[in-house]
Amino acid sequence: MRQSQRRFLVKLGIVATVAAIAAAGGGAAFAQAKKYDAGANDREIKIGHIGPYSGPASAYGAIGKAIGAYFEKVNAEGGINGRKIKYLTQDDGYNPAKTVEMTRKLVEEEEVLLVFNPLGTPPNSAIHKYMNQKKVPQLFVATGASKWGDPRNFPWTMGWQPNYFSEGRIYASHLLETKPNGRIGILMQNDDYGKDYVNGFKAGLGDKAKSMILSEVTYEVTDPTVDSQMVTLKASGADVFFNVTTPKFAAQAIRKAAEIGWNPVHYLNSVSNAAGSVMMAAGAQAGVGVISAFYLKDPTDPQWQKSPEYAEWLAWMKKFHPQGDIKDNFNVYGYTVAQTLVQVLKQAGNDLTRANVMRQAASLDMTLPMLLPGVKIKTGPADFFPIEQEQLARWDGKTWVLFGKTYGQ
Amino acid sequence: MEALIQQVVAGLANGGIYASMGLALVMIYQSTHHINFAQGEMAMFSTFIAWALLQAGWPYWGAFGATVLISFAGGLAIQRIILKPVEKAPVLTNVIVFIGLLVIFNSLAGWIFDHTIKPFPSPFPKFTGAGKLISGHDLGSIAVMLVVLALLYSFLRFTPAGLAMRAAAQNPESARLVGIRVSWMLGVGWGLSAAIGAVAGMMVAPVVYLDPNMMGGILLYGFAAALLGGIDNPWGAVIGGFIVGVLENLLGAYVIGTELKLTVALVLIVTFLTIKPNGLFGKAVVTRV
Amino acid sequence: MTGTSATVVPRAGLPKPVILALALAGLALIFIAPFLVKNYRVFQFNLVLIYAVAILGLNILTGYNGQISLGHSAFYAIGAYCAAILMDRYEWAYWATIAPAAVICFGVGALMGFPALRLGGHYLALATLALALATPQLLKYKKIEGLTGGVQGIVLNKPDPPFTFELFGSALNQDRWLYFMSLALTLVMFLIAWNLLRGRVGRALIAIRDHPVAAAAMGVNLPVYKSLAFGVSAAFTGVAGAMGAVVVAFVAPDSFSSFLSITFLVGVVVGGLGSISGAIFGAVFIQFVPNIADHISKSAPWAIYGVFLIVFMYVMPGGVAALAHKLLQRMKSAS
What we know:
The complex is a heterotrimer. Chain A is an alpha/beta fold. In chain A, 43% of the residues lie in helices and 17% in strands. The radius of gyration of chain C is 20 Å and the shape is globular. The model of chain C has no long low-confidence stretch (mean pLDDT 88). At the A-B interface, strand 7, helix 8 and helix 9 of A face helix 1, helix 4, helix 9, helix 10 and helix 11 of B.
């Protein structure tokens, strides 16, 4: 071969090799490409949601609406990694049979990527097995029952909010620290939510539960008032009151306690501690001294209304959810849980398989603007309880004053 | 002892709530011989209208009066427009129409006014009399209910219009022959019960807080109260309401506990009705073969 | 008088072979339908079949015997819990739970018949409504929580089909198998009802509804027949409840509120009082119209449902069965 031909061949060889490496490298880049399960593609991510928009629990329908409004904001800002969210929300009326039907519709007909924030323990119990059999994420369920953090047996289900059982324990431990000889009266809603709180409270009291609890009365959501129950509790001689009621009945209970001149140490569950719609409705002075646990910022609390996070939340409400009530803390809940899902999907990048969604959901470590300072969202492969921290606060007639330590890890 | 008195008084306060709903049901029954299952939701909707007027700045009694008038007109309109086509249809067909109205009002209220609870003001002075036993509002609303009862009773019993209304319900054919405009009597009957329902709702809302599901439980108790007292007797509805309220409280506090008090109360009422099938003060209806 | 037969065959009109072909095509469609649609639809079909049996039960009492009941959600719940407890706590097979559910509900229903003897009209409505309201409370009662699961309810396992089968590329899975089970059950219950109601018992029930005094004068034993009507009606709805528990694979007190009773009543009236075939239409209505209403308006779907109800009552006050009967009469007289 002549010298020029050899040089040409060598140059060709180098170019070919470089091209091959480039192709291989580029090919590898393309191989880290997009992976999709049903409900996700280049343009959109389908998210299913079920909530009680009708029936006795219809007040909680506000959460589903807030979530939808937040996804609108995300879409208006370009979506997640360039994909828009398609939000499909269904009404189950808090009827577990309907929840089963709607879930199957979302999974089998609409073919959503995941089912997000279904509400209530009986509805979620009804679809628990199905979701895990079908390997579809049942993500960030809207109930505080403690059974949703069980990755070994139910790897496709994850809770979100601090569970009621551990919140009950927090109140119990505070009580044992401050008033170990208290005589306790309990008012609870006669359903899973009530039972969970009370079981946690009793577990926190340990052996002293039997001796400290004098009276335990229940009510149904169809009862017009809880006045009779309050009279019974006062008559029992209790000087500590554990109030496990939903907002309407919480307001009634606080008001009635003041009316009948009963002034116990009053622990109120976090579902019903909204400053605007509960404490003020009961009469601002009636609830002075009431203690409750918090993980979210209350939008009617003046101490948060000065903060930039609140301003951002308010701007979102005004632009994307104008018909929502700015005094309703369900709108803060919906905002924050939606942000959590958005973070998970962002982390998932181009791998939008259901398995990866769960993997990302199990690797969260962050805070969000409307969570209380000091409260984090943290998950791991064995830790399916995203939010476990709460702080106690005392009502002073105008606002909730935080005190003490942050409970939980 | 003090607790017992407090339970009884709380029961009377609740009973007043049931009684006012029962009155509305008696009114509709007296004028149409139907029980309007949508009565509770209509009352709730009227209360929301009052709330909206108050939010717009109206004074309380102005909003109250306007709501009563609007409710009367609304009830009349519903009967004339929606119920007229099924006037001659069987009872159960009418019942389904009532159920339709029930879900429509409930759904519309949720859509227009949303589901968060709203406080509703009371026009009565805020005192807690008799050693913190009973509040100003409880006394006031019982007084209002008794006034409504007196007006209703005298209307039905002593006025020609009331007589015409009862005749139209009991025997439409003969009533027509005597010159009574039966259709319009039915409409007026609906208007009056809607108005009574509005008053009931506005008296109840300050106690139980206003939201679309406010009246669901109360309607059932009102139904029990009206039947216990005798469905054709306004006095019966009131006394029935008080009995139901006190009975339920005493059962819950002293007999069976709160978990089963509704069940036991209902069992007792039904047992009583089997002994006295027309209620406490109802008239026995005798059918000729 | 509305028709009491399970299938209405017009006498004149289409020629016999065409009718036969249509009937066979219909039957074939019923059998292959579950293989043509997704599982979720099959689940809905199962619910329709089950509600049809429940509505049929209520119809026996209210349509044929004139006793109004707002309490049938209680019998549905009792049947469902019977099945759930037997399957979950005592490991019974799902098909064996149907008979005990029927027997227990018959007993409870007949017991309800006693106060019913003294009460009529609105008073009976209240008494049955009381039963519907009491049932969720009783199911939640903590003293029997060990048996009923309390507020948490009982989660069940769906039965697997006993053999494998494929048609049009769809396998015979759990839902499709349950479709055929529910279909068989529905056919059996409809046949029982048809037999019962076209004979002496049926005539006695109708006589009691139309003119109780005359019926008594003619020798019909009112207390026995009225209690029997309650018992049989409760048994039918209880059987539906038991099958429902298997199909949904979950029972909880929240599934059986008094609104379910009202829904059954809607189904009976929309389908047609005193009509057996009407029960299917009623079931289709209560299962699918709320979903259609949801499509039409997301913000106030139940308002749309209410409008549907009212319009239905305007157009067919006697229910679908009565309308169908009228149309067939007109076809007959026209030809």
